[in-house]
Amino acid sequence: VNPQVRLWTVRLQGDAEKISPQIASRLTILAQKETDIEVCCQLASSARRLPTADCLPIVRGLLTSQNAEDARLPLLVWWAIESKAAADAGAIVTMLEDQSIWKAPIMQRYVTERIMRRFAATDQRKDLTVCAKLLSLAPNDDDVKRLMSGFEAAYAGRPLVNLPSDLAAALEKFSGSSVTLGLRQGRAAALEEALKTLTDDRADKTKQLQYVQILGEVSQPECVPTLLNVVTKSSDSALQTSALRALGRYDSPQIAPTIIGGFSGMTDDVRAAAGALLASRASWIQKLLEAIDARQFDKSWLPLDVVQRMTLFSDRKIFSLVNQHWPDLKPATSEQLKTEIDRIAAVLQNGVGKPKAGKQLFMNQCGKCHTLFAAGGKVGPDLTTFKRDDLQTMLLSIVNPNAEIREGFNTYRIEIEDGRLVSGTLAEQDSQTVTLRTPEGTLVSVARGEIAEMKAAPQSIMPEGLLKEYSDQQLRDLFGYLRMTQPVID
Ligand code: HEC
Question: Given the CA of residue 393, which atom of ligand 1 is nearest to it?
Answer without folding.
Answer: 29
